[in-house]
Specification:
The complex is a heterodimer of chains A (293) and B (324). Chain A contains ten helices and 13 strands. Chain A is an alpha/beta fold and 293 residues long. In chain A, helix 6 links the parallel strand 6 and strand 7. The two termini of chain A are 31 Å apart. The relative contact order of chain A is 0.14. Chain B has two domains: 254 residues, no CATH class; 59 residues, no CATH class. Classes of the chains: A alpha/beta (293), B alpha+beta (324). At the A-B interface, helix 2 and helix 3 of A face helix 1 and helix 5 of B.
Chain lengths: 293, 324
């Protein structure tokens, strides 16, 4: 079963499409990085998947169920980028309210996690630091024992140490419980540590959707003479090319560097940035790794 | 009680304990105040051996009791009616400050993104948390209404006003009516919050909507209900009339010997003679006292039905427009 499937999914706010023609299949058991610039539609897509927003067009399923349905609610947990909490309550009250809203609820997991983080249950939620609030929200999302976790910018308010801690914790949950995670973030370098599947969203459309291994294995960063870029288009599929003086840096879909060019493996950050610089280039899931201009 | 109901009641308690405690507390404190005032007034009458005046002068107030003490008890002033209006304002205030923010504040604070992405759907959350609150408010309002009804009897006597249960203020100051208005106020507050999603504009919309409902009830619904199924009897201009204390006159008319209705009495000196001369009969349609409770039930049943439809409408709207 796929964790996420969308067909022709679209969401329009007045005249603007936040998400459009979105065909996406994310296999279960993966940690999926959802990347894209501000306003790309990441939050809208996640809110549709969690059942907060109704799509204007198309369909979506999460773990085979319609978003917001009882089956989906039982299996999907989410953390919004706004870190919504009952800020007037104490942490203990917030946990109690969450427990009342969920069945099952892993109270031990929540208590142990908050204790390990040093977050006192007697503190007012609104008085916690932004990072502590994010940790509390994430803890509650996982205490629901979901099969799919949708996280919208969960690392934004965390310091580097806390980020590493959260990523490690998520990896443990994935390894131990077979949890599927969809993870939206601007911090692409950190996504690379845990993501096995990459989705790049640009201007409301899916630009890239494939496994990280297949993407990194089929793309190279090429450096060579700037005046050779035009000839290079005949030899390899170029995603984007940047010229700096006499040198050019090219992101290309190729297994080997052409003569006269030095090739090296790309990082996920380079890959994502390369595609974002060239919105016309897409890796269409239905056709395999094809670049469509 | 299902496990879901228990969990939702707990959720309401954790999130809204101020409202859960505050609503009954406000109603019960107000009831206590009215009860205490009523006890003081009745004690004063008892000390002066004037309890009998309340019964003897039910029709005309205290003016014919004759006792100097009784006369001093009567203090014609608008205060009882002012307080009666204030009593009726309490359900409005409860709806305004506890009902409207229930959902509107969820949207304003963004907390709905937590509440409505949990294992419980927004519909279940709304019905499961708001339902018990409305029930609690209705029971508290009924107790408050009982105290208000009891207090208003003696308040009218002190005002020198005749006691007439069909009067608008008497009709509204009953446990049933106050509970009915409280339930409707809470439902309209919920709808305002769900539709507008910002507390202050929703409060304004709530006041306007509830005001329209009160206006419709007073000018159309209550008179219409009072005209349904009256008793009819033949009377003379001087005798045979149903008691003006306990009944409500819907309509009077003259009837010709052939059974034709003639509306209005002629402007003559001796109406009885004129009626006898023309062989007319005089009729009255009226609501007997035992109809009052049924009409109260009907009116408040309509309020509760509108409230239920309003809540269902709110839930439906939340289902199709959960966030955006």
């Amino acid at each position: 079963m796929n964790a996420i499937e969308t067909r022709g999914l679209g969401k329009r706010y007045r005249r603007t499409w936040a998400v459009r023609d979105c065909d996406l299949t994310v296999p279960a058991g993966q940690v999926t990085a959802l990347a894209g610039p501000n306003g790309a539609g990441k939050t809208t897509l996640l809110r549709i998947l969690v059942g907060l927003t109704a799509p204007t067009a198309g369909t979506a399923t999460v773990l085979g169920a319609a978003p917001g349905s009882p089956q989906a609610r039982a299996a999907v947990s989410a953390m919004d980028q706004t870190v919504p909490l009952y800020r007037h309550l104490r942490v203990a009250g917030q946990l109690a309210a969450a427990r009342a809203l969920n069945d099952p609820w892993d109270a031990d997991l929540a208590a142990q996690r908050l204790s390990a983080l040093g977050i006192p249950t007697s503190a007012r939620v609104g008085k916690l630091s932004g990072g502590q609030q994010a940790q509390l929200a994430l803890t509650m999302a996982l205490a629901r024992r979901p099969r799919l976790l949708l996280l919208d910018e969960p690392l934004a308010s965390l310091d580097p140490l806390a980020r590493q801690d959260v990523l490690g914790w998520l990896m443990t949950c994935v390894a131990e419980d077979g949890l599927s995670v969809v993870f939206s973030s601007h911090v692409i370098a950190e996504l690379e540590q845990i993501a096995s599947y990459l989705v790049v969203l640009s201007a409301g459309r899916i630009q890239v959707a494939a496994t990280v291994d297949s993407l990194l294995g089929t793309h190279l960063a090429l450096t060579g003479p700037a005046d050779g870029v035009d000839d290079l288009y005949d030899q390899v599929e170029i995603v984007t090319a940047q010229r700096a003086g006499r040198q050019a840096l090219v992101l290309a879909r190729t297994g080997a560097a052409p003569p006269g060019w030095a090739g090296r493996p790309v990082t996920m950050e380079e890959l994502v940035l390369g595609y974002l610089r060239e919105p016309a280039a897409r890796v269409v899931p239905g056709l395999g790794l094809e670049i469509v201009r | 009680m299902t496990a879901m109901t228990v969990r939702m009641t707990r959720a309401a308690w954790y999130k809204h304990r101020f409202s859960v405690v505050g609503i009954p507390a406000v109603f019960l404190l107000a009831a206590l105040a009215l009860f205490a005032d009523g006890v003081v007034q009745r004690h004063w009458l008892s000390v002066h051996h004037l309890n009998g005046c309340l019964v003897a002068n039910a029709d005309t107030g205290g003016s014919s009791c004759g006792s100097a003490a009784w006369v001093s008890f009567i203090q014609p002033s608008p205060m009882p009616n002012v307080i009666a209006v204030a009593v009726l304002a309490l359900p409005v205030l409860v709806g305004l400050f506890a009902g409207v923010p229930w959902v509107a504040r969820e949207f304003e604070s963004g907390a709905f993104r937590f509440t409505w992405t949990q294992g419980t759907s927004p519909r279940h959350w709304l019905l499961g948390t708001f339902g018990p609150l409305v029930l609690l408010a209705a029971v508290s309002a009924a107790i408050y209404g009982a105290a208000a009804y009891w207090w208003y009897q003696i308040a009218q006597w002190q005002d020198g006003t005749s006691i007439w249960s069909w009067r608008s203020s008497s009709f509204e100051l009953t446990p049933l009516s106050i509970a009915g208005w409280t339930v409707l106020a809470m439902a309209l507050a919920l709808l305002s919050g769900v539709l507008i999603r910002r507390a202050q504009p929703a409060m304004i919309a709530f006041i306007v909507t509830l005001g329209a409902c009160v206006y419709l009830s007073q000018t159309w619904l209550r008179p219409w209900l009072f005209s349904i199924g009256p008793a009819v009897k033949q009377v003379s201009t001087s005798a045979g009339w149903p008691s003006s204390v306990t009944t409500y006159t819907v309509q009077t008319w003259l009837q010709t010997p052939s059974g034709q209705r003639v509306s209005g009495l002629p402007a003559v000196n001796n109406v009885s003679a004129w009626i006898a001369q023309h062989h007319y009969t005089y009729w009255v349609a009226y609501q007997p006292h035992n109809h009052l409770i049924w009409l109260e039930l009907a009116r408040n049943g309509i309020l509760v039905t509108v409230a239920i439809l309003t809540v269902l409408g709110s839930v439906w709207w939340l289902r199709i427009r959960p966030a955006d």
